Amino acid sequence: MNILSKLTQNEVNRQKNSLNLIASENYPSPKTLQLLGSIWNDKYAEGYPGKRYYAGNKYADELEELTCQKALEVFDKTGEYGVNVQALSGSPANAVVYLTVLEAGDTVLSLDLASGGHLSHLHSTSNYLKFFKFANYSLQSKKQGSSIDVADFAAKLKEHKPRLVIIGFSSYPRKYEFAKLCEIAHEAGALVLADISHIAGLVAAGEHDSPFKKDEQGADFVTTTTHKTMRGPRSALIFAKQEYMPAINKTIFPGTSGGPHLNQIAAVGQSLLEILGEDEYPDKQSFIEYSQQVVANTKSLENGLEEAGVDMVMPTQNHLCLVELPEGVDSLDMQNRLESLGIVTNRNTIPGDDRSAWRPGGLRLGTAALTSRGLDAEQARELGVAIGSVITDSIEDKQVKQYAQELANMLHWYY
Ligand code: DSN
């Protein structure tokens, strides 16, 4: 075994023997993973099906066409959208939309980072601020329910006159109100990008409202990564209303990228077949059943945390929940302590956070990965109680470590 085989085996053991609650991670099917490491890796295919710059792309063309067709079948019931499957991941996919629709000096309006926005949605640290400006909308107070503050959203539109508005989040446990926000943004003359990276699987399964709608209630652009609740490989999809597709395609190639990664496109195609039920879904369940279980498990996990006396930032309605850590509990220390017990989480900013970004005030927990390993609602509740008891310091570490190891041993492992 060489050093890389050893490292890989170590990582397999780490994943298998721990409980992964990182809301943006998941375990794709073995077939999906195999395609990532397949001979599609070897081929260059600059261009698009039927118009490539190198020879040898007969099957690459069929592959890309198939993946596009399946992506539209899964997501777009309106027939108004097209798709590009060549983006390498979520942040570059969002950048493609910016470079397609924005002129230098234009403003993008997005949710502020502490409230659950994403780094790629233009924030103070973004290099894109050399060219574009940003403004943020925010959430209601906790007392009002912590949802998107629609009045603030409308006011910010009026104040900043953004060219593009982003509806999409990295750490927002509630449902995204696409239709209402799209309508308000369109009325103000802005274009809308819905970034559904976190909830794509829920949207595909009908467990969450869809931004793919006709007219003013639909987003003009929809981006998503494919490896979170979609349970596919690391990659991304960019959808746009048909009128914008030629410009989006041009921004990807030749605008910003060379050859697409056909191995990623093949693996995305596999996960779409599984979502559509055209290939067997792991564990003989359907994607819809899996997605319903993700939502149910997250609610149970939250119930368990609350039973143990932990406060949530807002009640969960999707695949993730957000803990507000008590005063005096440091999030980095808590993340490290839980990891040492076999429970993998990530610390996160929370609305109005006045702690530092390195040691923010919250802990984000998602159940998509463990649900892929067969976690059920009662197990999720018990896990919530265990984590909550660590946070409130009312249980011995060795007891939690043993419990986490037993649960990890009980859950499926695919690879
Ligand atoms: N890191 C991912 C997330 O957790 O949301 C996306 O960049």
- CATH homologous superfamily grouping of the largest domain: Type I PLP-dependent aspartate aminotransferase-like (Major domain)
Mean pLDDT: 96
Poorly predicted residue ranges:
none
Overall SS class: alpha/beta
Q: Which ions and ligands are bound to the chains?
A: D-serine
CATH class of the largest domain: Alpha Beta
Helix share of residues?
40-55%
Major sheet size, sense and barrel closure = 7 strands, mixed
- CATH architecture term of the largest domain: 3-Layer(aba) Sandwich
Alpha-carbon Rg, integer: 21 Å
Strand percentage lies at 5-15%
Could you give the distance between the termini? 18 Å
Please count the beta strands (DSSP E, at least 2 residues each): 15
Q: What is the tally of helical segments? A: 14
Strand sequence of the main sheet, in spatial order?
4-10-9-8-7-5-6
What's the domain count?
A: 2
So what's the overall shape? globular
Could you describe the 3D structure shown?
- With 415 residues, the protein is an alpha/beta fold.
- The protein folds into 2 domains: 31-276, 3-Layer(aba) Sandwich (Aspartate Aminotransferase, domain 2); 284-410, Alpha-Beta Complex (Aspartate Aminotransferase, domain 1), CATH 3.90.1150.
- It is 41% helix and 14% strand.
- The protein has helices at residues 3-16, 30-36, 58-75, 90-101, 150-160, 178-187, 200-204, 245-256, 262-276, 287-307, 331-340, 368-372, 377-391, 397-410, and strands spanning 19-20, 47-48, 51-52, 81-84, 107-111, 133-137, 164-167, 191-195, 221-225, 236-241, 311-312, 320-324, 343-344, 346-348, 362-366.
- The strands form 4 sheets. A 7-stranded mixed β-sheet has the order 4-10-9-8-7-5-6, sandwiched between helices.
- Strand 11 and strand 12 form a beta hairpin.
- The two termini are 18 Å apart.
- D-serine binds at residues 24, 90, 170.
